[in-house]
Amino acid sequence: MRLFHKIGWLSKRNFSYKGYSTAATGWRSTIGLELHVQLLTKQKLFSVASAKWNDAPNTNVCMVDAGIPGSLPRLNPHCVRLAARAILGLNGQIQQISSFDRKHYFYLDQPLGYQITQQQHPIGKGGFIELVYQTKGLNRSKKVHIHQLQLEQDTAKSVHDIYSDYVLVDLNRAGVALIEIVTKPDIDTAEEAAQFVRKMQVLLRHIGVSHCNMEDGSMRCDVNVSVYRDGDDRLSGTRCELKNLNSLKVIRNAIGAEIARQIELLTAGKLVAQETRGFDARSGETFLARSKEAAPDYRYMPDPDIPEVHISQDWIKNARSLPELPEVTRERLQRQYDLSREDIETMINEPGCVFFFEQSALGRDPKRVAAWVTSEIFGQLSYRAQRLADSPLTVTQLGELLDSIACNTITSLQAKQLLIELMNGETRTIAELIKAHGCKVLEDESQIRQIANDTLDSYPKEAAAYLKGQTRRLNFLIGKTIQATKGQARPQEVSRIVKELLDSKK
User: Is domain 445-503 in CATH 1.10.10.410, yes or no?
Assistant: First the structure.
């Protein structure tokens, strides 16, 4: 099924204010966020259709999702559990009674003519995320409080780039389960907003609520921005909403541009209109999308087809069995393994990575394991556009690979080549792979020295440049020597010998 609708293009009034500093002009800003996060469920919020919205268009759709008259929604209980886990992870409170409302509006991607949400009685209220002092761009610690967390269904997806005069509608995403997280207007700067979203991503990934990938739309951000003169009430400004910001960089730039736009209007004696705006990341400009609708315009009403959700105290007590939260994990990894902050953050941000690391580190040097995980494995994952959870690499395989290096059975360069095969799906044991590829370590120092001498003779200009003080040439010569040994010599041994030979020529 494909739906077509001819569209007219909105005219844009563009603004670009890239260098405006609110601190230098006596203005301040107030910022609130609305995050829409897709839940990790196999089925949609109110139907049995698959939640895989990026399959072939209109293949995961049932009558409820398409808004066929007479079809009735049925709440997916797993979505309730994930929403409860999210609000508890945010230090909020699960509401024992919650209910669903219809938010009425017409748009191409809304097949029902309304969205089912929890405006009046959400499943969660309260909570906070703490932004830590001395994090990049932050000059003080602060808590950003959560107003509420509600369950709601996602819209369909509009596709604009196939036919110039038509919008195609893919209903796969219609009805996919979301939580909407609404903050209080506690945020003052674009950097604080970006740090809040980053910490939210880490938290929800870590406790298994969502992938939170902004690049594929499983986490989307709307931002409310207003400005006021220094000394005035911080809620006195007119609020404008920026829709569908899809990366941390875009969030920073869009907020900065909107703050500057509002300051320029107010400085010129003009009013800021309450409206919804978009952001053009290429030009760094905000543009008018539509006049802002107030809440009464949506004609909220209780959904008559969905009963209230009643949650017992015993259910809430059981729901408090959360996985270890990110802040606790950070402190434990630092204390237990003495890892770098960068390695810890990299692993915490990848679902399942901390467990993978700790299992691989049993009986091994944890810093060496962490280096392989965050450098070599993550490099391969990035090349494949893959998540660790989807990789065929196992803890056993990585452990055997590292043990082979430690026992001088293979070199680190050979291990990196074997890692590629393992991440391509190779199922043979490390011992079998070593035998099949004829991997070995070149132990004869005299042979390594001869190869190193031959390398220096082959690259006299680079050797001469090193002797004249261009020390960066050393790595080039070491690399060529390792290459000449076919990766069989240990890098640290080659490095020592090459340096000795060069220094003897001074």
Answer: yes
